[in-house]
Write a structure and sequence with these properties.
Radius of gyration: 20 Å
Number of helices: 10
Strand content: 5-15%
Order of helices and strands: HHEEHHHHHHHH
Structural class: mainly alpha
Shape: globular
Number of domains: 2
Length: 198
Amino acid sequence: MEFPKCVLENLRQPLEDGIVSVSRATGTIQFPAKFILVAAMNPCPCGYYSDPEQECICHQSQIVKYQKRASGPLLDRIDLHVEVPRVKLEKLESDQLAESSLDIRQRVQTARDIQNERYKTEKIFDNSEMTSEQIKKYCQLDVAGKELIRRAAEHLRFSARAYFRVLKLARTIADLEQSENVLVGHLAEALQYRPKIE
């Protein structure tokens, strides 16, 4: 189901603040609304814009109009952007086993335990809730990391929001690897999940 652009835009404030405000003539009420947004969209109306095996039949103006349904400010609030290509038939038929859900769950739980311990004296529970001051405290980078994020911020034209979101994500990747410090590899992986500039 495709949602109207106005509906998508109304997600911006809840994604940022974790609060939904309902205004009526008699006043305004705020409700807690912390949630994880998982969204998917095709690259164009026909779905084949980036497919190497199927030619896209859309006109360039159709592609631009379709992609603009999700605005830059909304996309800026989404931490992980992943392009999912067509799955090869050989992979579907392969007997090779992927990592089990139990192993993944254990790794995630370990990262959550690390965050619970780290923030036990703070008024937050996980990396996503860090303020800019907490990011400076818990996401310190070495010289190589600072240079990498500086160059990426210039090339990808980061907003302040995007800059801090990358650091939070790098901190989470480091926690998944049980690394005390955010290393340049964690930062590089976090940068790969930002939207690509066409």
